[in-house]
Amino acid sequence: MFELIFKPLNYLSIRWDNGLINKTRFDFIVPLLVTIILSAIMTFLYFKIGTKNSNIFTNDLTYYLICFLQTMPGFYIAALAAISTINSTTMDQPMAGDPPKERYVEHNPYKVFWINMNRRRFLARLFSYLTFISITLFCFLLVIRFSYSLEITIISLPYLVYIVYFFSCVVVIFLLVQLIMMTFLSLYYLGERVHKN
Question: Is residue 99 in some structural domain?
Answer without folding.
Answer: no
